Amino acid sequence: MKFERTDLSQTRSAADIVFAALRDAIVKGDLENGAQLRQEEIAAAFNVSRIPVREAIARLEQLGLVETRRYKGAFVTDLPIQEIEEIFRLRALVESDAIRRVVVDMDPTALAEARAAHDAFAQATDPAAWMEQNRRFHCALYRAGQQRHYMGVIENLLNLSDRYLRAQLSLTDGQQKAVAEHALILAACENGDADLAARLTAQHIEDAKTSLLTRLNEKRAASG
Amino acid sequence: MKFERTDLSQTRSAADIVFAALRDAIVKGDLENGAQLRQEEIAAAFNVSRIPVREAIARLEQLGLVETRRYKGAFVTDLPIQEIEEIFRLRALVESDAIRRVVVDMDPTALAEARAAHDAFAQATDPAAWMEQNRRFHCALYRAGQQRHYMGVIENLLNLSDRYLRAQLSLTDGQQKAVAEHALILAACENGDADLAARLTAQHIEDAKTSLLTRLNEKRAASG
DNA sequence: CCGGCCAAGATTGGATACAATATCCAAAAT
DNA sequence: ATTTTGGATATTGTATCCAATCTTGGCCGG
Question: Of the CATH numbers 3.30.70.2190, 1.20.1250.20, 1.10.3210.10, 1.20.120.530, which one belongs to the domain with range A81-223?
Answer without folding.
Answer: 1.20.120.530
